[in-house]
Each structure stands twice: as C-alpha cells, then as structure tokens.
Design a protein that fits this description.
The chain has 507 residues and is of the alpha/beta class. It is 34% helix and 15% strand.
C-alpha cells in the first residue's frame, strides 16, 4: 500500500511538472497624442497623473521609448504587425489598412486567447483578429460618441474616455474566464481639439503653465522646421481649438459654423449648458482684452494646455477605474498592463502643437508596464525600444513564436530583469505624409543613445545632425560642423545599414 501511495505521488508530481505555464493576460491601454511631458512619472511637473504613475511605480517605466512613424494610423499598424510602415503598407493616415495581413491579435486568437478591441481604430478597414470589437468611426467624438460594434453603429450618451472604459470593464466581466485574454483599450483623448469632460471644467482654472525655453524658436539652420504649419501662434484655430467665439467679428468662419453645429447637434442640453457656461466666459474675457503679438501666442499656449491636460485628467481617472477593477477581480497577479500613446506630442516646444517630426517630443512616447508576477523587472529601463516591439513581446509572453518577418524585437528579456549584453544601438524612423496638413516634409533618420541624423527629402533635400547630450532640445543643426564629421559619416552608414536591414525601398 505504501508503495502505491509513493507511485501515486510521483505520478502527480510528474503531471504537475508537465503542465503548461499559466499564460498572462494582456491589457494594452493606448491614448492618442499623449506626450510623455504630460505624465508625471516622467518628471516634468506639468500635471499630476497618479493612476498612470501607479503603473510605473508597481512595474517599470521605459525612459527611451519611441515610435517608427509619428502619426496615428501608421503607429497603430506598427503595433498590430510589428513592422515598419513600408513593410505593413500603412505609410500615412490616407491609406486603408490591409487587414488580411498577419497581426498579433490573430496569432493570439489561434493560440486560444480571447481578443477584444475597444475605442479608436482609425485604420479605415474593419478590425480582424478580434472576438469582440467596438470602435469609434474615424477620429470619433468626445461627447456622445458613435460606436461601430461588430458592424452595427449606435450612439452612446456620455464622455468618450469614460464610455470606452465602461465598455472595457463590461467585456472583462462577460468574457470566458477559462481562457487568457488580450484587451486593447484605445482612447481618443487627448487628440485635437481637446474637449474635456464637463466634470473637469474647473481643473487648472487660473493656472499659468511654464513656457518652453524654445517656444519662440526661429528655426535657424532647420529648413523643414521653418516650413511647417503647426505653430501655436499662427495655426491654432481660435474657435475650433481654443473654443473662443467672436474673435473674427460678426461673420462666422466655416470652422465656427462646424463648431456651433457640434454644440447644437451632438451634445445633450446638460452638456451644452455646462460647455457654454465655461467657454462663453473665456470668450468674453479674451474679447475684452484681446492680447496681440507675443502676448497672444503665450495666451494661446496656456489656453491649449489647459484643455489638453483636462482631457488627460479623464484618461488618468479612468485608467484608475480599470486598474481597480482588475485588482478587485483578482486579475492583476497574472496580467500585463501596458500604458502608452500612439506617438508623442508638442506642448509648446519649438512653438508647436501636433507631432510628425523626428524631433524628440514627437518621436518619443510614454511607455509603462505593470508586470504579471512571473516577470521580475522593476524600475527604469533605459534601452532603446520602439512600437514595433510590442507585437513580438505579446506573442512571446503567450508562448507564440513571432513570425520571422516581424521587424520588432521582443522586450521579454528586459521584462525579466536580465541585463542585456547586446541590444539595439540605433532606431530607424520614417515619416511619409506630405503634402498634407501641417506641411511637415517627408523624412527618415537614425537615432542612437546620443546622436540623431535626419534626412528631409521629396521637395527639399536637407540633412540635420544633433548631439542630444549637448543639445537635448535640438536647436543647433551640426551638419556643417567639421567637429562632427566623423559622427556624421558613422550615422550615414548606420542609417543606410538600417534601411537595408528593413528592406526600405520606397521614398
């Protein structure tokens, strides 16, 4: 009898040893145009984001996280495919995403994961690879947004960030608990034109935000920067962006007409009343003083940042709600929670809003992860990472071998806290959307831990070189400085090697 008990115990131990490891769940939260400067974990002091900071405090924060093409649709395609824009075909916002190609959600589905996408999609084609999807059409609306849910369109009453979070929690509650899951939560905020939740209208009242040192940039030695059309001073709309009506006199611009239509046809009476209370008073105050010149530029910067940061307040609050639900449901122990943005954003640096350029504020993006208990990394990670790395990372965590043609690198070794003897020493970037809004010229380039080389091409031919240690705000183009000839030669070779490695053939 004793012998039989021993055999039974051995068989049980053998059976347990052969069991598959528990595969982690994945919750991927992505905002639209959230600059790292507006995440308090990155230390700018511009605003407070305690719930986003919680992800970093309980996990890891990437200090050198970048995108491969700083614009919405290409960034989303890079996430899904693990490939640069030229390889997945989504070079700009105007192209329709080829949803028949291999994506990480499809591979997770095949491996037994439940997959869901909720929020902004912005890829024109219908989502594939998801058991459930509920997406905003196009850019979507902040107030009472329409959703296309599994092919059926319906309008939801409320504020977009809150509704998207509600839908995410509802899906988690109804999912098949016998399977691991991957949930993509894609917020519209803080995309232009920065329409806050009415409950946040008191936030930052009277605040005066710090002005970037290079706000009044002259763009000397930087031809493409001088040609752009995304200056806060000259390109922000008084009505559409800053919600100030009557600045152009009695005649209404088309933008103002569209804005008034939105107020009258999209909002509920309660929302509209709160909106008019807030912005009518701001309009009256502006019209009574009418600042001009540099004073007007600084006024527009402060007005822009007020609403931009108010939309982020809602993101932070609702991220906290989602984290609290995961905790109360006992899911945090085995769930990877990722917070990032589809790209960075200018918050007055160089006098700009928007993104697109390879300069740091646009190229760099926040990235924080709260890890499942099976992964040991904590604190700061300084290696160069890029949004093409997310797909192979998720696949490896799920026990799925990434396809050979994925161009990203799995971050799993970094998440395990292992020191990397070899890691990528340079990143490749390529922006294609020109001619287009904001007039940012086409360009590609390479960034190492210290230097950056950019080539603007198409209707201009200009090279820019920056020493990011000596000049972190990228104000001095060193391309003609003989002291940097050796650096330039090395970077030209490095970007050529990356273009060959990634098989970049198109311009």
């Amino acid at each position: 009898m004793k012998h039989l008990v021993t055999v039974a115990l051995l068989l049980l131990l053998w059976s347990c040893a052969r069991q598959e490891p528990v595969r982690p769940n994945i919750v991927y939260i992505m905002t639209d145009d959230h600059g790292y400067q507006a995440v308090s974990a990155y230390g700018s002091g511009l605003n407070k984001t305690p719930n986003l900071d919680r992800i970093a405090d309980e996990g890891i924060i990437f200090r050198n996280s970048f995108v491969c093409n700083s614009i919405c649709a290409p960034s989303r395609a890079a996430l899904l495919t693990g490939k640069h824009s030229h390889a997945n075909g989504q070079i700009d916002n105007r192209v329709r995403f080829d949803s028949s190609q291999v994506t990480f959600p499809k591979l997770l589905q095949e491996a037994g994961y439940q997959t869901a996408l909720i929020g902004k999609w912005h890829l024109r084609s219908e989502p594939t690879g998801f058991d459930f999807w509920s997406i905003l059409p196009g850019q979507g609306s902040y107030y009472n947004p329409d959703f296309i849910e599994m092919g059926r369109t319906c309008r939801q009453t409320g504020y977009a960030t809150t509704i998207i979070t509600d839908k995410a929690i509802e899906w988690l509650q109804q999912r098949d608990t016998a399977k691991p899951f991957c949930l993509l939560v894609h917020h519209k905020a803080p995309h232009r034109n920065w329409m806050p939740d009415t409950i946040d209208f008191d936030l930052y009242d009277g605040a005066v935000f710090p002005v970037p040192d290079n706000f009044f940039d002259s763009y000397e030695g930087r031809q493409a920067a001088a040609l752009q059309e995304m200056g806060i001073s000259k390109d922000l709309h008084m009505s559409y962006d800053l919600k100030i009506t009557g600045a152009d006199g009695d005649s209404l611009t088309q933008t103002e007409k569209d804005y008034i239509w939105y107020l009258e046809n999209r909002m509920t009476p309660e929302q509209r009343a709160a909106w008019l209370r807030e912005y009518d008073s701001i309009s009256r105050e502006f019209l009574s003083g009418r600042p001009e010149g540099d004073s007007l530029a600084l006024y527009k910067l402060n007005r822009y940042l007020t609403d931009y940061l108010r939309t982020i307040e809602s993101v932070d609050r609702n991220t906290g709600r989602l984290l609290d639900y995961l905790g109360s449901a006992g899911l945090l122990e085995n769930t990877l929670v990722v917070y990032t943005s589809d790209q960075g954003f200018y918050l007055g640096e160089h006098g700009w809003f928007d993104k697109r350029f390879m300069y740091e504020e646009s190229f760099r993006t926040p990235l924080m992860m709260r890890l499942p208990s099976s992964l040991s990394a904590r604190g700061d990670i300084s290696e160069l990472v890029q949004n093409i790395d997310y797909a192979p990372t998720f696949l490896e965590l799920a026990g799925v071998k990434p396809p050979a043609d994925m161009q990203g690198v799995s971050l799993v070794p970094l998440l395990r806290g292992k020191k990397q003897g070899r890691w990528r020493d340079a990143l490749y970037y390529h922006y294609y959307e020109y001619p287009a809004e904001h007039a940012v010229r086409r360009h590609y380039g390479v960034r190492t831990d210290r230097y950056k080389l950019i080539h603007f091409y198409n209707d201009i031919d200009a090279w820019e070189l920056y020493d990011l240690v000596a000049d972190p705000h990228e104000m001095k183009n060193l391309i003609d400085d003989p002291a940097y000839d050796k650096v330039e030669r090395h970077l030209r070779k490095r970007v050529a090697a990356l273009r060959k490695e990634y098989n970049v053939t198109q311009e």
